[in-house]
Fold this protein.
Amino acid sequence: MAKAVRRALVAGNWKMNGATAQLKEVRLLAQMLEGVRLNCDVAVCPPFTLLSAVSRVAAKAGIATGAQDCHAEASGAFTGDVAAEMVKDCGASLVIVGHSERRTLHGETDAVVKAKADAAHRAGLTAIVCLGETLEERKAGRTLDVVSRQLEGSLPSVALPADTVIAYEPVWAIGTGLTPTLKEVAEVHGHLRAELARIAGGQRSRGLRLLYGGSVKPANAAELMAAGDVDGALVGGASLKASDFLGIIKAYM
Ligand code: PEP
């Protein structure tokens, strides 16, 4: 059977960082990418407050934008929440759902994450569905069981290569400077690929992209990309500065 060709995606998650001044980093990134033939897709996910402004600047350079979360409902009495439709209205094409900080700090279950991923699809957005084990779970040898459970519970009702991306982010690697070995990354990605075939169907799942996230930097991006079945990166801290983010993008060019 022919190997599925998957175009890499490098997505930056700014988390709760950046005010208007941070727009200069997107302008810089757009300048740096001008005229460059990219072999990967690039996306920036700023806080909601910057989504429209970042989308306007990024669109000119072919950089996609996304939100870091959305509500499952399209509208209603949900003070402080933002619907997927509103994210789309800001010019974004993606939304991250189920980031470990949402799962841990906001008690989001797999069912909540799935509802948000379905909402993303309803609004015409691509869902980046995050999952990953804690250090305790890894030490207990439960990593593959945990990611299987999260994948099965969080995957949207229909997951197609054009509208769904999976991001494997070991919780203990996020923002810590720690990364799994390449063997560990390849083991989890290989497992997720097989699980996707079981859950979503072989043909359909072969085109789904599997990103790695957790302390990706310019210095380690190329070697992480070379680990088996890695189709790009979800980048937190190192996406805030255009020069660092570009250093990571270069590993995928
Ligand atoms: C993230 O928050 O998704 C992330 C991967 O963070 P960092 O790159 O800072 O570890």
Remarks:
- The longest helix spans residues 182-200.
